[in-house]
Batch of 2 targets.
Target 1
Amino acid sequence: MGIVVSLDGDRGRKPSLDPLSELVAEDLKAVNELIVQRMDSPVELIPQLAGHIIAAGGKRLRPMLTLASARMCGYSGTRHVALAACVEFLHTATLLHDDVVDESDLRRGLASANTLWGNKASVLVGDFLFSRSFELMVEDGSLEMLGILSNASAVIAEGEVMQLITANDTETSETAYLEVIQSKTAQLFAAACKIGAVVAERPRIEEEALDSFGMNLGIAFQMIDDVLDYSAKQATLGKSIGDDFKEGKMSLPVILSFRRGDDEDRAFWRRTVEDLDQNEGDFEHALHLMEKHTALEDSVERARHYGAIARDALGLFSDRAEKSAFNELIDFCIERAY
Amino acid sequence: MGIVVSLDGDRGRKPSLDPLSELVAEDLKAVNELIVQRMDSPVELIPQLAGHIIAAGGKRLRPMLTLASARMCGYSGTRHVALAACVEFLHTATLLHDDVVDESDLRRGLASANTLWGNKASVLVGDFLFSRSFELMVEDGSLEMLGILSNASAVIAEGEVMQLITANDTETSETAYLEVIQSKTAQLFAAACKIGAVVAERPRIEEEALDSFGMNLGIAFQMIDDVLDYSAKQATLGKSIGDDFKEGKMSLPVILSFRRGDDEDRAFWRRTVEDLDQNEGDFEHALHLMEKHTALEDSVERARHYGAIARDALGLFSDRAEKSAFNELIDFCIERAY
């Protein structure tokens, strides 16, 4: 099945998004154009607000997953462009609603939409993007795609509600945490990848392999994101460090620190995370406890586990540039913790 | 084309929803069962919160429109039940997001969901219901239905954003007001009716007739709703009177009073509605100005105009119990102002 060449590449180089970005650059440009076109509305506030959050842009990771998955599956048509735009619209709608929910002040290093325009506008423009996403899917015309993405949407919303319930609850288990991030983050990664196989009309085993790749990559990605909230320099991450702590989010580093701590430690977490009774120096003490219990390192270790599953999920695809870029993406998602 | 009988019925009787409710009672029971089944989730807060708002229930006007439209078009299948549930889910999602947006304290006479569970949960459970609605549409399997309803969703969101922009702006014109209520309310009425013709596979002229019936009925309905916010007894309406005034909503009675008023009147509206600088007695003064300028009566008069268009839109359907119930529904929507 083709010549097997080692595509691991320069082992010394820091893993990056670049190979993936370069592979899909042309397609992604088309996605961006479609996004700008479809977020338009005579109601000016809509393109203004949507444009703000979409242009701030982030990495466009999810649409890139769709584009590269389709190409890896040998797809040579153009439907994947609109489908990738659907995925990004769904993601942006979620972000807008998430910003309202979390009352976060920063998103990707810029003021978040709700700070600039208010919660009301963020909720409604989120709804608009959500609807636009479904309009685009309808235009694509595949009920299978619509099924995958509407189901992903429902699961994401369920995950967000779960997260809301577990927030400030120090009794949240690692299992519950895993369920939350699987739903609220990894489900869309999984759907984004799977539709690449579906649009290429590949057999079910490849659909499932890409679904699993996306799911496990998404879990690892979110775990590292949660680690970064306690370790990243704000400048590199583009979001406020310590936000999760301030909100009392029960992310993996907190769960591990709480469970590994003594009574005094647990009293600290209950006061700060459960009662949100936080004083100066508390965040530093939280970091100290995490260090004491190697909570950040071990969270990264857990992420590596899911990264490994994601890598194996790609095993049945023949070696192509996209596969290699996906493998580097897994490394990138994990290594950015350092 | 069948025997034409007068179905206008007891002219002396106060128009009510009863004939419509009785006609679709059986089907509506199936819709309610499907709704309960599909709002379920292992995340308990979801059925709790969704159940609260759906059970509070309101009149189920929109799903009844779908059910009766389908029957009026001679449809004898069962797809209209799930489609009616889709419509109600979309409506409920909008209500949940609307409650967050308006910071209203009462919805249908019960505490609103956001008061009980917080804004966060309302936004997310709204998203869940929205997604569930699309999942149901996908199961129905018609891309045409999906197109109608996803488009309606986008227009509703646009209308909500427009309303947000015009709030507190005393310069809002009657035309702008009309555009808002057409989008945020009437569009879903129109879609709910139209899909009845689509599911029955009726010719385009009937689809369009039902679309127009729903659109104009929806406009009349919202206009009266806005009148009721200045005239209804809280007990009969099941919502707080004066909410729109408190929020500075530029509804038709305010627009008419502002435009017909003198400088002193306008200064009053600017202070109370634009600056939201409201004191005791201001609401009563607002009512006084509306009386002076017959703003409420004339808003009802405007609603009658749209009611008349809705009635004529039904003209090309042969006389059936559903048509008669729809005609009474138009009267009911307008007469409830008294």
Note: The longest strand of chain B covers residues 106-107.
Target 2
Amino acid sequence: MADLINLTRGNPDPAAFPIQALVRCSEENLKRDGKVVLQYGHAPGYAPLREWFARQYAVKPANIFMGNSSLEILNFLTQIELKPGTRAFVESPSYDRANTLLRRSGAEVVGIPMEADGMNLAIFEKELQKGPPALAYVVADFQNPMGTTTSEAKRKQVAAWAQQYGFWIAEDAPYRQLRYHGQAVPTIMSFAPDRVLHMSSLSKVLAPGVRMGYVVAPEAVVEKLVRYALDTYIGPVLTAQGMVYEYLCTGALEPNIEKLKKLYGPRLDGALASLDKYLPGTIIARPEGGYFVSITLPQGNSMDKLLARAEGVGLKLSDGRGFYLTPADGDRFLRIPFCQIAPDEMEEAIRRLAGILD
Amino acid sequence: MADLINLTRGNPDPAAFPIQALVRCSEENLKRDGKVVLQYGHAPGYAPLREWFARQYAVKPANIFMGNSSLEILNFLTQIELKPGTRAFVESPSYDRANTLLRRSGAEVVGIPMEADGMNLAIFEKELQKGPPALAYVVADFQNPMGTTTSEAKRKQVAAWAQQYGFWIAEDAPYRQLRYHGQAVPTIMSFAPDRVLHMSSLSKVLAPGVRMGYVVAPEAVVEKLVRYALDTYIGPVLTAQGMVYEYLCTGALEPNIEKLKKLYGPRLDGALASLDKYLPGTIIARPEGGYFVSITLPQGNSMDKLLARAEGVGLKLSDGRGFYLTPADGDRFLRIPFCQIAPDEMEEAIRRLAGILD
């Protein structure tokens, strides 16, 4: 059998981790502030880092909360804002782990079908009228799993509804800084800062292992998060946040993002070219950034058939049904992460994929 | 006003953090295994560290789960094992944050009154007959907040009941290795390994800022924890666990614990001597280790009066009511953490305390 090609999780390429720089940053921070980062404290996250992000987003430190991954921050938000009897809206398909957390809260989770430019707003509005959600989870930039970017018009409309109906938008934006083509679209937060909890992390632009997630949010929400964090783990892992702080202070993040764009941009282009060549017409929307491109398998195919055959040709694929609240909706949906796969390997993967489709 | 003396949280003395050693360990781990610890993965905790703890406790790696603090592991356990309609038993008084987490689960939380050698077992048994708990939370060694050690006989009895009635004992043992006097008592786990979730951390014996908590538990429980962790944060903060792993591999932990015993033991002795001198007869049980000694205020005193007066003499105290499910039960209970306070400062603190009591 051919060497296995793994097209499952959205991992960064580990060859791009700035290991030497992080060694120096860890040393620098422990030596200067070891008695702080090795002690208890800083429930909202390492204070100097909190101030750094506040400057970055032009908000107050009281608007920043940092935790051990943005996923866990979403968990806190769902535990605080949702409960049985409330509703949560989510894009359909959406990030599988987000679906799990929303459901864990006991809320009724409603999927709003995705289109190439974001959610179908007619359906969103119909669901609003049935009963507004307490929270809507949206990945507006280079969506996981579809790769789509929500249009400015749709962002404005959802922001306006959040204000009108009084619900929170959890705008998860970990891929936002990785735009390889085209122009940035304003964040949903920019249209309704009083109603948007803008989440991001350093997992896609630096390294996931530091688990540095953060949210920019109204003070009242941050206060609830701090209380919840204190009760859950006292404070986040400060040694990791201290190391990250030094790294950001050196000004190395922007050049690192440029380096990643030069690495991942051609991988996206290569993946799209291979799909055009071997599976023309299957791409749902041509992504302009991020980690994922997604396709609809031609009629006559199904996940069960695909996954059974993939093993035989050395392909490991994500079950597309996992991204949908109603699994059957994803029976012909395939997410293809491209950042960790070299272009020639990706062409080989798509060739194998085409060979096992009906 | 005199310099403030803070007798609230149980923090280690930051002067004892082995900062230089941790700088080297962080460098060593990032250089050798950076592509792993900076990537996603290892939901049960950094694999080599998991193996290290497995050897330490003579169990399989599948019996070890490590997270970003033992408190958060307790949170996971309560979320997995408790729900409205179940019961949880807890020592009364107990660790305030544990009480909060147990209650967050929605379970009925029942406090079992503490005595100088552990819980009152007559009351434990009566509550068992009313309805066994799903989980009992116990700090058997140098209890937080009392400083007491549960006797071997009581450990055996509680372990036997856990097997008979089929409930989990969460045995939280972060202070266990810090014994300054007397002989170690066998863990509750040693009497019922199939029913005990033995939790500990490196917060008291190395540094809290790395948030390295772990639990030794039956495989089926570890599997549930891994699933829950994966869904909550994907994996713990691996850079911190990598640094800790290198530290443990150097064999430095045992000497560090010996160093801490030499530092903290005399502080315990000094605190006891000062209490004997200024507040004779108030110590509830003379601790043989750990971080805390506790006293019962003489009759006629109350928390409201005490806390109002403490400020005026430069004392910051923990409200004793916070350790009880029924706050009024702690109206004359005072926890005194001694590890972060130099002996002469502690004598001054106790002198001030005696001066404001009725």
Note: The longest strand of chain B covers residues 108-115.
